[in-house]
């Protein structure tokens, strides 16, 4: 394998007409099968999908990546390609993945690919994915609808830390750790519904990765100060984190604290949280708020301090003035 080959270089060569599509196909497949770098393998698969290659040889190689590559990122790229280009041939493989995959990233991706499709051929996949949601629902004591948000959130953890796996034990700690600003715990569940969520990607990952130390952690008077100090030396790709669109599954959510996540945008679906009363978006990198926030009729408290929002429309100003407390 030519070590100077890169997926981007091959793709640009095709666009410029310097490389034939047949040669590009061979070169991309050689990277998938021969590179030790998962980023290169993943990118090569993405480019094969962009170039719309549909040869059966490609299917067999990408299917092998989906079923056996050690990298969740590579398996995720393979799932996208196979679902879009080889769906009919790949039903059995996708069913196996839905049943056996340990990475929430791939499971979340397949859910998103299926969307609201009613194709009869993919019903076996949906059945297995619903079993995943049922397991999450039973383990955490929440509805299956809200379990979808938890799955998508766990997928975001993988994007930040590719070695992250779904660890149910961490949730027993999320429901105990106190958010002193709002006098709530990080995660509060009542009658099978999440009602309060204080979500900081670094803090949640720290708990997930250090379960053996949590008995000592709970003895700290101000654990969040300790976590903020640790954040300065974080090795996680925190910039990759975003709030899943499926947050609107949390229809009983009353408090949402997303402070200090480095967020540059919010999902439009946040405007569907009809019972939300307190929303803290402080210490992020937001430059605007979704207009759908105006739909939050129960909202009483909004904190958007330490962001990059400079101006508001007249409509937003009227909304902000109607709140009990607004911090900028």
Describe this protein's structure.
A hairpin with a 4-residue loop joins β1 and β2. The protein is 48% helix and 8% strand. Strands 3-4-5-6-7-8 form a 6-stranded mixed β-sheet, with no helix packed on it. The chain has a two-stranded antiparallel ribbon with strand order 1-2. It is an alpha/beta fold and 328 residues long. The mean pLDDT is 93. It starts with 6 loop residues before the first helix and ends with a strand. The protein is globular and about 65 Å long. α5 (72-85) packs parallel to α7 and α8 packs across α9. It folds into 2 domains: 7-140, no CATH class; 163-327, Alpha-Beta Horseshoe (Leucine-rich repeat, LRR (right-handed beta-alpha superhelix)), CATH 3.80.10.10. The chain has helices at 7-16, 21-34, 38-50, 56-68, 72-85, 87-100, 104-114, 123-140, 144-160, 171-174, 201-209, 214-217, 223-231, 314-321, and strands at residues 178-179, 184-185, 187-190, 193-198, 255-257, 278-280, 301-303, 325-327.
């Amino acid at each position: 394998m030519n070590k100077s080959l890169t997926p981007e270089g091959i793709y640009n060569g095709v666009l410029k007409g310097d490389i034939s599509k047949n040669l590009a196909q061979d070169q991309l497949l050689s990277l998938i099968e021969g590179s030790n770098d998962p980023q290169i393998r993943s990118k090569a698969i993405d480019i094969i999908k962009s170039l719309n290659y549909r040869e059966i040889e490609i299917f067999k190689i990408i299917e092998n990546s989906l079923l056996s590559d050690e990298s969740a990122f590579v398996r995720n790229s393979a799932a996208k390609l196979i679902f879009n280009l080889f769906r009919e041939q790949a039903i059995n493989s996708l069913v196996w993945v839905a049943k056996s995959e340990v990475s929430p990233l791939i499971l979340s991706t397949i859910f998103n690919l299926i969307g609201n499709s009613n194709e009869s051929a993919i019903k076996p996949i949906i059945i297995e994915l619903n079993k995943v949601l049922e397991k999450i629902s039973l383990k955490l004591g929440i509805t299956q609808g809200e379990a979808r948000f938890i799955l998508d959130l766990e997928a975001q953890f993988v994007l930040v830390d590719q070695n992250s796996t779904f660890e149910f034990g961490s949730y027993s700690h999320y429901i105990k750790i106190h958010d002193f600003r709002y006098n709530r715990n990080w995660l509060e569940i009542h009658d099978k519904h999440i009602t309060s969520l204080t979500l900081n990607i670094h803090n949640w990952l720290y708990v997930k990765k250090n379960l053996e130390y949590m008995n000592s952690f709970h003895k700290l008077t101000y654990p969040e100060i300790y976590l903020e100090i640790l954040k300065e030396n974080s090795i996680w790709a925190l910039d990759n984190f975003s709030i899943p669109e499926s947050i609107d599954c949390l229809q009983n959510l009353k408090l949402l604290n997303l402070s200090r996540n480095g967020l540059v945008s919010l999902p439009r679906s946040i405007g569907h949280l009809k019972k939300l009363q307190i929303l803290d978006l402080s210490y992020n990198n937001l430059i605007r708020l979704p207009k759908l926030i105006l739909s939050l009729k129960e909202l009483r408290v909004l904190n958007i301090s330490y962001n990059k929002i400079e101006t508001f429309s007249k409509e937003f100003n009227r909304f902000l003035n109607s709140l009990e407390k607004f911090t900028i």
